[in-house]
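Example 277, ligand magnesium ion.
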Amino acid sequence: MIMSVVHRKGGEVGMIVSVVHQKGGVGKTTTSINLASALVLNNKRVLLVDMDPQAHSTKGLGVELEDSNPSVKDIMLKEATSLFAQYWAGDIHEVIRKSPREGLDLVPAEIRLSQTLEELYGRCSKNFRESILSKSLLPIMDYYDYVIIDCPPGLGLLAVNAIKASQFILIPSIMSKLSVDSITDLLNLLKRAKGTAFEDYRILPTLVDTRLRATNEYVIEELSIHKGKVLRTQIARNETINQAQITHQDIFAFAPGSRGAEDYAKLAKELLKLWEE
Ligand SMILES: Nc1ncnc2c1ncn2[C@@H]1O[C@H](COP(=O)(O)OP(=O)(O)O)[C@@H](O)[C@H]1O
Ligand SMILES: [Mg+2]
């Protein structure tokens, strides 16, 4: 086991949060990495699960995988072949890696995750293949306060696995009509996967350019149909966030005094208040 944490006290179980949006480039990975880091800075034990075959979270945290290193594809495949609960424990422990940030662990992804997906279609029933991640995470849920899942673009099997495993869904959206419009489809999928009574989701405006006043006003108006579901925190477009990504660091390591760090710290505070009250 290479996890950086020990058993939690009191038998409490952590919360699983998916960062989902079907479009690429809306800030899912940036939000996953920096929210996870901000939670660690609030003394939480956090696991980041990279569910994107493009492995942007894995690379963004500066974790390099060798061909032989296990990744999230291995727990997906192992689950599919071993239909017995006793095999679930153990596997995920082998996959978890430490990240450069003390207290933040990672389940890495790699490109072969997409092949794995194809195999799952042939091997198991719909119900089974959609709840693989959820079952895989069970044995470690008393080690972590929060598990953050960075989803790939699209609403395919990987995103559905993440959604089914989660108690809370965070939807980053850029300030564009297309991005905001597609939230409706995403919410339909959420209700299908989690039941119509599911309300534990929030929308996070990202890459907000404060100079584009007319666009911002229009988008905020469009978002107002999602009453009570839009977070107060907005993530401004900030060049240091891009630079942090290039240097494979979270924003708090790269530029702790930056606007980006300030925004993501605010996001963590707002969510912790929501989750822990
Ligand atoms: N607030 C921001 N300010 C500036 N650049 C950002 C911001 N958020 C994300 N980016 C950049 O936008 C691109 C897409 O973001 P990313 O988080 O990878 O989106 P997704 O995971 O949804 O595809 C990346 O290059 C990232 O560095
Ligand atoms: Mg991404």
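Summary: The chain is about 45% helix and 10% strand.
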